[in-house]
Design goal:
A four-stranded mixed β-sheet has the order 1-2-4-3. It has one domain. It is α/β, with parallel strands linked by helices. A hairpin with a 2-residue loop joins strand 3 and strand 4. It has two helices and four strands. The radius of gyration is 11 Å and the shape is flat.
């Protein structure tokens, strides 16, 4: 978790499927947090059912520039 508003899961995969999002999607249903993010080896960011899938480099850029505050 980041700032008690963001759930982050890290996957060492180059392709993240819906099945890989099972835990974050269950957490999202509870509605306790604002953002749900998977950091992975994919090449492009995308959004699946309210979960942001971010390449690790894009995640670090957002983290460093304060986008998650």
């Amino acid at each position: 978790m980041l700032n008690e508003t963001t759930a982050i899961e890290v996957k060492g995969r180059s392709t993240v499927g819906r099945r890989d999002l099972k835990g974050l999607l269950a957490l999202r249903e509870e509605g306790l947090l604002r953002d749900y993010i998977v950091v992975c080896l994919e090449e492009r960011p995308r959004l699946v059912d309210g979960v942001q899938i971010l390449p690790w480099g894009a995640f670090l850029e957002c983290l460093w520039d304060g986008s998650f505050d």
